[in-house]
Design goal:
8 strands, binds zinc ion, single chain
């Protein structure tokens, strides 16, 4: 992927929270602790990852369900203090071509421009894209790096430990490495924000199993990531410039490979040595590939309505 060197970057929503203040534990405070059943020590970070992802998603759904919708939620109280200035030097597409940090800002900008155009009046950007190390506080509770990247609907923010890609996705799960992999993950998390804006989170009733609502929500995020990838080079910023000047077939193949690597069956096989469909929360490798490709080839919100089809 290449960026238009002259395009201006907007780093207003991208922050780095730095190293968690909780000393590596869960700093979420009373009632927000994320339990890891069965003493996951030794189970490998992949095993922890999947368990915690389920719990975080459930907590977030619970939060958004009991909070009377997102409208009344104060989004500013949790992350105000934290910004290490990691993104201060990110000003142009040229910076994004040189630095992976600035490329993250550029991809966030592209996602925001794309979805603004796609959703029109129904759109608002995510509140924040927060990178962190070790642990972070969110409206969905405290989280550590083991959680993996996630979207918290209660504060409409995306949280990302940038070490995840080397340490978990590549080393633990055998996923691909390389620039575009992270941007697929970012586009997937942004996809959760779009599902949230469109009201799909409220439709989630069943949490586990290949045809569950939780899986449908995940596959929808993959589909939305595909939609953005399809339109990435034709998306224009406020000044009418296309920020992403090149996205190759290899980039798209890497995204699909990454989607497959985080399929529930692949993760279960790696961490438990067996596959149990009933506990799936994100969908199999084949399902994730399929829905990314549906988004990429059909490129419409309607095609990505995973809640409208009989079987995903
Ligand atoms: Zn997801």
């Amino acid at each position: 992927m290449k960026f238009n060197p002259k395009a201006r970057l907007d780093r207003g929503r991208v922050k780095d929270a730095g190293q968690g203040s909780g000393g590596g534990g869960f700093p979420g405070g009373s009632g927000r602790r994320i339990p890891i059943p069965g003493g996951a020590a030794g189970g490998g970070i992949g095993g922890i990852l999947i368990v915690v992802l389920i719990i975080v998603l459930n907590q977030c759904l619970a939060n958004s369900d009991t909070g009377g919708g997102t409208g009344g939620y104060s989004t500013s109280r949790l992350n105000d203090s934290a910004d290490t200035g990691r993104y201060e030097s990110c000003e142009t597409g040229a910076d994004a071509n040189e630095s992976q940090d600035c490329a993250r800002v550029a991809v966030e900008n592209s996602l925001t421009d794309y979805w603004d155009g796609e959703l029109g009046g129904r759109f608002r950007p995510e509140e924040q894209l927060v990178t962190f190390t070790d642990s972070v506080n969110t409206a969905c509770g405290g989280a550590t790096s083991a959680v993996g990247p996630f979207y918290c609907p209660a504060d409409e923010s995306i949280y990302l430990d940038t070490d995840f890609f080397d340490e978990v996705l590549e080393r633990e799960l055998g996923g691909p490495d390389g620039g575009f992999v992270e941007y697929y993950v970012l586009a997937h998390e942004y996809g959760h924000h779009i599902s949230n804006l469109l009201g799909y989170f409220g439709q989630v009733r069943t949490q586990q199993g290949p045809q569950s609502d939780a899986v449908r929500l995940e596959l929808q995020a993959d589909c939305y990531a595909g939609m953005w990838a399809r339109h990435a080079t034709s998306t224009k910023d406020a000044e009418g410039q296309a920020l992403i000047s090149e996205l190759t077939d290899e980039d798209v193949d890497l995204a699909i490979e990454a989607a497959e690597a985080v399929g529930d069956d692949r993760i279960q096989q790696k961490t438990q040595g067996q596959v149990t469909e009933e506990s799936w929360t994100h969908g199999s490798a084949a399902m994730r590939k399929k829905w990314f490709e549906i988004g990429y080839t059909e490129g419409s919100l309607q095609a990505c309505d995973t809640f409208a089809v009989g079987r995903v």
